Task: structure prediction
Amino acid sequence: MSEKIDLQFSESGRWLIVRFKGMINLLVRDQLRQAVMLELEKRPTCDLVIDLSGVTAVDSSGLGAIFSIYKYLSERQSTLALAAPNRDVGALLELTHLDKVIRIEKLLATITG
Result:
């Protein structure tokens, strides 16, 4: 049970940027995680920023996917940052205390320079 997702990847300096529109939920979590990991394997020295500006909502499965990506990056001593969450997604990240573990910025440019 999954949906086809449309991820866009770009680079800015040391950052690999992934953009996604829609909900990060049970239906897309595995595809999101696998696609991101595949791109990261091609770029072993990159850090990752997930641009959340097009994300409308995140459920517990989506949070799990984000945390899984965070753990993978931590193991290779790289960084994960999240950019531009909407009010609801930002509130969820605070409620779950992921904002204490993962860098979150209101603007993508704040991270990528």
